[in-house]
Amino acid sequence: MNPIVTRAAPKEREVEAFRARRQRVLDALLAQNGEGILVLPTGSEIPSHGDGSFPFRPGSDFDYLCGFPEPDAILVVFPETRRSRTTARAELFVRPKDKTAEVWHGRRFGEKAARRAFGVDEAKTLAQFDERLLELLDDFDRLFVRYRADQRFDDRLFRLFGQRSKRHRRRSIAAHPALIDPTPAIARERLVKDEVELDALRLAAEVSCAGHRAAMAEAAPGHYEFEIQAALESEFRRRGSSRNGYESIVASGANACILHYVENRRRTKSGDLVLLDAGAEVGGLTADITRTWPVTGSFTDAQLSVYKAVLKAQRAAIRAVRPGRSYAQVHATAARALTRGLVDLGVLRGDPKKLFKTNAFRPFYMHGTGHYLGRDVHDVGAYEDEKGRPIPLEPGMVLTIEPGLYFDSKDQGVPAQLRGIGVRIEDDILVTEDGCEVLTAAVPTDPKAIEAVCRGE
């Protein structure tokens, strides 16, 4: 096992990736809107009690463009002509070095180390941001900024706009520059992962698979859901992931029919299925895996029949992933297979094709077949264009495939042996030039292989 350091100062390859991303984003913004300044703040620490804060995580767009891990930083990117070529100049505004604060709360990069480590053209203290932005607004009349995402930052900007108006009152300038939301342009760039991101996703998948296998091997009837969670997440930490990509779902028995169950307090019993949905974050990117398995190490006949129906749908949906296809087509493939499975299980009656067209599967399969994956577990990126047409998949996109079936324990319309069974199977899929790659194949989906892992074989 090789521990992974997840958020140290970036290596040169990562720094080059930040530069390339900033250039692509700025180019896209300028091409669509004309010249302007991209201003992107990261988040602030949020107090959790009188003497502490919730764990801080940088904003995903901010992290994508510079990787600086500290709170309250601001990234400014604008065009600069160098050798007859327009390049993206990046300036980063950070908290200053502070010996006393660092004794209490940990080391800071400070402006000098931030400039060296993160590949920006200049780094300054936060106190210098206001004057610098006012200088830049003399040369640019567009501001690419997400308005109403951070009230404190909005207040700061509009205070600056007021100062600018007073400075130039004889010129009768506009009260503020044109404000253009950069989020769609950044989302389009984030949708296709570069090699640095794919390396991080592969590591996240590797760590997450190890955690799932550890949880499956350690669980036994009588263990609480939080004990299974502890086995999972301790493996994440042992392998270098400093945090989860999202809150772990450890749902045993009928809890598996609650899609986002996170209480994780129930004590498992012999005969239970455990639906475990969890992923580790590595290098700012997260995996997302769901496996459903028997806590005793053996599926019952009823559990296995449901499991096989879901697995058949997942395999069909994965085969449907390839460049040129759309998410909507992948979802339809899974939903058709699940509809046929529901007929075979005796839950639905009739022609599967007609049942699919009327969405008869929806009471038992109420969510989508997947979502984009990356820096956010439900990552950014549009599924349809401005005219409502499906966006085709292309190499470098990553999405999850996660069909499921859920039978409420009190649903009298469902065969008795199926009531209370919830099954979901989820893998992370990279779109490749000629099809796709399953990044999370190291934790099995075949029922016999799952039983073997659960028995510690």
Q: How would you describe this structure in keywords?
A:
457 residues, alpha+beta, six-stranded mixed beta sheet, three-stranded antiparallel beta sheet, 13 helices, 19 strands
Task: Explain this structure.
This protein has 457 residues and is an alpha+beta fold. The model is unreliable at 1-7 (pLDDT under 50). The longest helix has 24 residues, at 195-218. 37% of the residues lie in helices and 18% in strands. The strands form six sheets. A six-stranded mixed sheet has the order 6-5-4-1-7-8.
Distance between the termini: 19 Å
Average pLDDT score: 95
Class per helix and strand makeup: alpha+beta
Task: Give me the number of helical elements.
Answer: 13
What is the overall silhouette?
elongated
For the secondary structure, the number of strands is: 19
Strand content: 15-25%
Q: How much helicity do the residues have?
A: 25-40%
Strand order of the largest sheet: 6-5-4-1-7-8
The major β-sheet equals: 6 strands, mixed
Rg over CA atoms, rounded to whole Å, is 25 Å
Q: Low-confidence parts lasting 5 or more residues at pLDDT below 50?
A: 1-7
